[in-house]
Each structure stands twice: as structure tokens, then as C-alpha cells.
Design a protein that fits this description.
This protein starts with a strand and ends with a helix. The chain has 227 residues and is an alpha/beta fold. It has helices at 40-50, 70-76, 180-192, 210-216, 218-225; strands at residues 5-11, 17-23, 29-33, 53-58, 81-85, 118-121, 125-129, 132-138, 147-151, 156-159, 198-201, 208-209. The protein has one domain (5-225): Metallo-beta-lactamase, Chain A (4-Layer Sandwich). The longest helix has 13 residues, at 180-192. The strands form 2 sheets. Strands 1-2-3-4-5-6 form a 6-stranded mixed sheet, covered by helices on one side.
């Protein structure tokens, strides 16, 4: 089985927002995950340089930085289908739900036009897009329908919002403190996944080994110790 690779596109204009291109050098198939605060040109350049064919675009959570310029992505890759969970889809069309109304960014209070090929991403389901296999894990917390994506063949976990930061010891955001749903998600990650997994967070320009987070992050240790 050929192994897929992950290219991270980081946009420092807004909270080091990440988008990902999961691709296979042999089959030339690819999936785009999140728009990285509208980093279309950078993604197009990478896709072209590798000769890739984009099969799908996945939006992991309702926060606007993950889907700004989505309509332009649809125009650039006209044959792809767009996937987002049914709980988060309303945020595409509501600046209060997607939090863009709270920030003074160049996109303002942001909404998109209805994509022609928008489909619901299902929780706790395995997918195979152009022989790129992954499982959707319901994360919740920061947005009701936020998810993690488990590329189990590569031991790669794309984290929506609950695990993010610049160093392993500071990767748990303040929003997690006392949030039972997020704490349950964190317990599930560290009880279910091999500690050799590499975590790619949606914010920050680095990735982490789960074992290092377990070793150095006191907040994770405390959450795991709670019953």
C-alpha cells in the first residue's frame, strides 16, 4: 500500500490558521482539508507542482478561518465535492455562528454562497476518497460539529480545535478547562491512539508526536487522571 503525505499550509494573517493537502505521490490524488484563512494560491501552487488531482475538500469545523474563500476553491477545483458535518453547515451562511462577526479581519462578517456539491460529513465513519483512507472522529467543544480526521494507515491525526499550540507542553487551549466534552475528547485521543501518531493541529505551524504531548503536558496529564 502506498503511503500518503501531508503538506501543511499555514497562514499567519489570522492565528496561524492551517490547511492541509493530504496526497499520494504515486496515484497523484489529493484531499484539501480547510482553506487556511483563504490560502488558495499557495494550495494551487503546491497541487500544480506535484501534478495532483484534488478529490474532495473537507471543512473540519464551523470557524470561518477554515472556510473563507470556499467558493473560490470550488471554482478552482470544479469537480470536487465539499464535506462538512451537518451540525456545522449552518455556520457557512451565518457570521454569528462562524464567529467572523467577532473579528475585524479583511473578510468582515463572512458567509459563502451555497456550493453545488456540498455533502454532510458523518461522525465516526470511515471514508475512502481516491484511495486515501481516513476516519471522521466527532470532537465537539469549540463548535458543535467539529471533527478530527484519523489517517490510520499513516498514523496521522488532524485535530480540529481541542489540541493546538506551539509546543507539546502548551497544546491544550484555555477553552478546554472545565469543558466536559473537550476533556472527554482528549481522553479518547490518548486512550485510543498509538502514541507514535503525529498530530497536526489547525492552528500553529508545527506538528507533534502524541507521546511527547503525554510526556510534557501537565494539563493533559491531569485530564487523563480524572475519572
Amino acid at each position: 500500500m502506498s503511503i500518503n503525505k501531508v503538506e501543511t499550509i499555514t497562514n499567519s494573517e489570522f492565528k496561524n490558521s492551517n490547511g492541509f493537502i493530504v496526497y499520494n505521490d504515486e496515484t497523484k490524488s489529493a484531499i484539501i482539508v480547510n482553506t487556511a484563512f483563504g490560502s488558495l494560491e499557495q494550495m494551487q501552487q503546491f497541487v500544480t507542482s506535484k501534478g495532483l488531482e484534488v478529490c474532495a475538500i473537507i471543512i473540519m469545523s464551523a470557524h470561518f478561518e477554515n472556510f473563507v474563500r470556499l467558493n473560490e476553491y470550488c471554482a478552482a477545483f470544479p469537480n470536487v465535492e465539499i464535506y462538512m458535518t451537518i451540525d456545522d453547515i449552518p455556520a457557512l451562511f451565518n457570521p454569528e455562528l462562524n464567529y467572523s462577526a467577532l473579528y475585524n479581519t479583511k473578510y468582515g462578517s463572512y458567509v459563502i454562497k451555497q456550493p453545488k456539491k456540498l455533502k454532510a460529513l458523518m461522525y465516526d465513519k470511515k471514508y475512502n476518497f481516491c484511495n486515501i483512507e481516513f476516519e471522521v472522529i466527532h470532537e465537539g467543544g469549540s463548535s458543535k460539529g467539529s471533527v478530527m480526521l484519523d489517517f490510520f494507515n499513516e498514523k496521522v491525526l488532524l485535530s480540529g480545535e481541542i489540541l493546538q499550540g506551539e509546543t507539546p507542553d502548551k497544546i491544550i487551549p484555555d477553552i478546554s478547562v472545565g469543558n466536559a466534552l473537550i476533556e472527554d475528547s482528549i481522553r479518547r485521543v490518548f486512550s485510543s491512539y498509538d502514541l507514535e501518531y503525529t498530530l497536526y493541529p489547525t492552528h500553529s505551524n508545527v506538528n507533534f508526536n502524541l507521546g511527547d504531548i503525554m510526556k510534557y503536558n501537565i494539563r493533559v496529564q491531569r485530564i487523563l487522571a480524572m475519572k
